[in-house]
């Protein structure tokens, strides 16, 4: 019995081990002579989407390109508008600066002119006193001064000194006296006033030969024209 039991155990151990078929191998069952139908295995993955035609893919690209072009055109238009505004503002700025400088120059000239002719009314009244001094000096004959009358000589010298000092003071403030007959000037209607005309042998026509009243200039402008006599031979 023991030998038989050992022989059976050795035979069982010597039997070949059957290969394990894969779990997903198709199982066929034979019922009689017919084979069992094959089992279908289904995938859980979603079905693949069909490829879209090239035209359909190109259409969205074109729609995206159009808004990009519109945005670029708008930006270009805005940039051009800003450039025009800059040019306009620069032109206005330069004009404003030029107007301001012209205003400054004109204001300076007006202020200077006001300073130069602020004493015009006072000077016009003052020249009458100067004329009186000039008349007083001209009324004293030269032969009377030569007689040796010391009082008359002193009075004459005092009047002459007063006139000289007054004329120097007036000249400092731009008021000057002129006598056209001293240098034999040509008649100038801008600074002379012809009182009479008379022939003078040996003198050219239009020459001033006599001064009835001396003229005055205030800062280069005629304050009072000189009253003169003019030569007229023809």
Kindly report the spatial arrangement of strands forming the biggest sheet.
3-6-7
The CATH class designation of the domain at 120-231 is: Mainly Beta
- Cα shape: rod-shaped
Quaternary organisation of the protein chains: single chain
CATH superfamily of the domain at 120-231: Head domain of nucleotide exchange factor GrpE
Mean pLDDT: 78
Question: How much helix, percentage-wise, in residues?
Answer: 40-55%
Count of helical regions: 5
Number of strands: 8
Structural class: alpha+beta
Question: What is the CATH T-level topology of the domain at 120-231?
Answer: Nucleotide Exchange Factor Grpe, Chain A, domain 2
Question: What portion of residues belong to β-strands?
Answer: 5-15%
Major beta sheet, specifics? Answer: 3 strands, antiparallel
Radius of gyration: 65 Å
At CATH level 2, the architecture of the domain at 120-231 is Roll
Tell me the distance between the termini. Answer: 194 Å
Q: Can you put this structure into words, describing what you see?
A:
Helices cover 53% and strands 15% of the residues. The chain has 234 residues and is α+β, with helices and mostly antiparallel strands. It has a domain at 120-231: Roll (Nucleotide Exchange Factor Grpe, Chain A, domain 2), CATH 2.30.22.10. It has a three-stranded antiparallel β-sheet. A hairpin with a 2-residue loop joins strand 6 and strand 7. The longest helix has 63 residues, at 54-116. It starts with a helix and ends with a strand.
């Amino acid at each position: 019995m023991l030998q038989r039991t050992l022989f059976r155990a050795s035979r069982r151990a010597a039997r070949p081990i059957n290969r394990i078929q894969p779990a997903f191998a198709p199982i066929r069952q034979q019922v009689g002579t017919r084979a069992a139908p094959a089992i279908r295995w289904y995938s859980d993955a979603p079905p693949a989407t069909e490829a879209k035609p090239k035209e359909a893919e190109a259409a969205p690209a074109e729609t995206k390109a159009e808004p990009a072009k519109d945005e670029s055109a708008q930006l270009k238009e805005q940039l051009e508008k800003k450039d025009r505004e800059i040019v306009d503002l620069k032109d206005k700025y330069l004009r404003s600066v030029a107007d301001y400088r012209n205003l400054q120059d004109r204001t300076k000239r007006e202020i200077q002119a006001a300073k130069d002719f602020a004493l015009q009314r006072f000077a016009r009244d003052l020249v009458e006193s100067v004329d009186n001094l000039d008349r007083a000096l001209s009324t004293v004959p030269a032969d009377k001064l030569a007689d040796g009358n010391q009082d008359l000589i002193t009075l004459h010298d005092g009047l002459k000194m007063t006139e000289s000092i007054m004329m120097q003071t007036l000249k400092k403030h731009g008021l000057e006296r002129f006598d056209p007959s001293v240098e034999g000037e040509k008649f100038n209607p801008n600074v002379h006033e012809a009182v009479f005309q008379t022939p003078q042998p040996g003198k050219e026509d239009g020459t001033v030969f006599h001064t009835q009243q001396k003229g005055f200039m205030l800062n280069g402008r005629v304050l009072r024209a000189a009253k003169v006599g003019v030569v007229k031979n023809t």
